[in-house]
Amino acid sequence: MGASGVSDEYSPPRLARLLHSLPHINVTLHRVNDTFAPNSPIYLESLGILGSIPGAWLILTLTVLLIYLLTRCCDRKQRPPRSITALKITLMILSVLCCGAIGVGLFGNDDLHNAMLQSIQAGNQLAALVNTVKNQSSILEEAMGSRARAPLARLADALDAPVANQTALGTLLRALSALRNNASAAASAADNLRRPLAALSLDAFMKRLWVWEAARWAGGMAGWCCGGAVCVALLAAAARRSRRALLMLCVCALGALVACWGASAALSAGAVAAADACQDPARALALHAPHGLPVDMVHYYLSCKVSRENVLTAELRNAQRAVVAVRQALAILSRGAPQLFNDPGLQPALGALGAGTGEAERALVSLSGALECRTARAYFVAAARAACDGGLQALSLQLLAAIIAGFLFTAIVLVDSHAWIYINTKRSVSVEEQAPFLSTGSAGSRTLPRPAPFPNGKPPSYSAAVQLMDLADRDRDRPRSRMSGSATLGRAGSGTGAAAALAAPGGSHTLGRAHNGKYATLSKQCKTLESNDFY
C-alpha cells in the first residue's frame, strides 16, 4: 500500500477528498471550518456529531429490540404449531454473512497495520536524518571548538618567540587570529544547528508509535475474532436447535451488536479526521504535532517550499564559510610558521588543526545532504502516502465492515430471539398437551365414574345391554315425576328379569340387580359403553 516515494509530489487520495467533503456541522446544525484542527473545540464537536450518527442508530435499534422482545414475551396467545426450519435457515444464512463481514473487518485491520508499518518505516528514515544532523553538528562543534583549543594555544605560544622578519610574523599572527575566530564561528554555527533539534526525539516517538500500533492491531484482531466466534457459535446453535444455546448466543449477539455500532462511531470520526489531515499533511504536522520546533522550520522541510531561507540552512552556510576560512588560514600558517620558528611543538599543533579541519569538512558534507529539504520531503511523502492512501482505505473498509456487521447482528438478534421464544412456547404447550386429558383433581371438572367390576369377571351380553338401553330410552321419553328416591331395577321373583322403576330422591336413576344378581349395576356399565363409543 502507498507509493514508493520516488516522486516528492503529494496529492490527496480520492477517498480522502470524499470523506473530507462530508458536512462538518455543530450542535446548531451550522457548517463549520473543515480544516484539520484537533485543538479546536468546534472542530472536535463536528467530529463528535459525525460519530454520534452510528450511536443514535444503536439507541434506536436497542429501543426497537426492547419493544419487540416485550411484545413477544408478554404474548401468551396460543398459535398453531409450525416448523421453525425457515427460522433455522435464515439464522444460518445471517451467520454466514456475518462471518463474511467479520472477515472483511479482519482484512481491513491487517491492511491498516501494514500501511502504518510502512509509514513508521518512512518515519524512522526521517528520524535517522534528524539524528544525522544532530551527530554531525556535534562533530563539527567538537572539531572546531573543544579539540581546537589546545593546538591553537600551542601555536600561539610558538608564534610568541622573537623573530627578525616582522612582516612575515604579522602575516602569521593575522592568519592565527582568523583561524581562531573562524573556528569559533564554525563551532557556534554547529551549536545553532544542533540546539533546535536537541529536544526532538523522533526515534523515541516512532518507537512509541510502533507500540501503539501493535496494541491497536492486537485489539482489533481480538475484537473481530470475538465477533467471528459469535457468528460461528450462532451457526452451530441454529443447526442444533438448542434453546439454552440460542438464549446465551442471543445475549452474545446483542453485545456484539453494541460493539459493532460503537466501533462504527469511533471509526467514522477517525476516518473523517484522517481525511481532513490528509488534505495537507505537512501543515497538519507542522501545526499540531508535538515536535517543539518552529512551525516555519517544520513546514519548510515537509513541504520543501523555498519561499524564504530556512534557519538551519542559514547556519549551515555560516559554518561552511567559517570552515573554508579556517582552511585558508591554516594553509598560511602551515607554509610560513615552520620557516620562521623551530619550535618542536609547532608541527603537531598544525597537524591536529589540519585533522580537525578535515573532520569538520566531512561533517559539513553530511550536513549538506541531511539538511536538504528534498530528502526530508521524500521520506515524508512516502509516510503520508502510506497513511493517507492505504491506511485510510483500510480504515474505511473496517468502518464498512462494522456497519454491515451491526445490521446483520441486529437481524440475528431478532431471528434468534423469535426462534427462542417460539421453541420455549412450543415446549410449554407440548407439556400442557402431555397432561391427562381427564383431570381428577380440579374442582368443577366433569368426571366419569369408573365402572364397577363385572360379576364373575365377564361383561353383560350384547342382548342384555341392548334391552337395558331400550329401557333407558323409554324411561327418558316419559314425563319426569317429582318423586323422591331412585328408580331401581329390582329383582323378579321367578321371571327372566323385568325392570321395576322407582323414583329416587336425588332424581338419579340407578339400575339395580336383576335375574338373581346375574348382572352388576347396569347404569355404570351403560355409561362406560357410552364413553367408549365417544372415544
TrEMBL record:
Q: What GO CC annotations are associated with the protein?
A: chloride channel complex; plasma membrane
InterPro entries in the record: Tweety
In alphabetical order, the GO MF annotations are: intracellularly calcium-gated chloride channel activity; volume-sensitive chloride channel activity
* Keyword Calcium found: no
Does the record bear Cell membrane in its keywords?
yes
Q: Report how it sits in the membrane.
A: Multi-pass membrane protein
Chief location of this protein within or outside the cell? membrane
Listed Pfam families: Tweety (PF04906)
PANTHER family, per the entry = PROTEIN TWEETY, TWEETY-RELATED
**Tell me, what does this protein do in biology?**
Probable chloride channel.
What protein name does the entry list? Protein tweety homolog
* Organism of derivation: Danaus plexippus plexippus
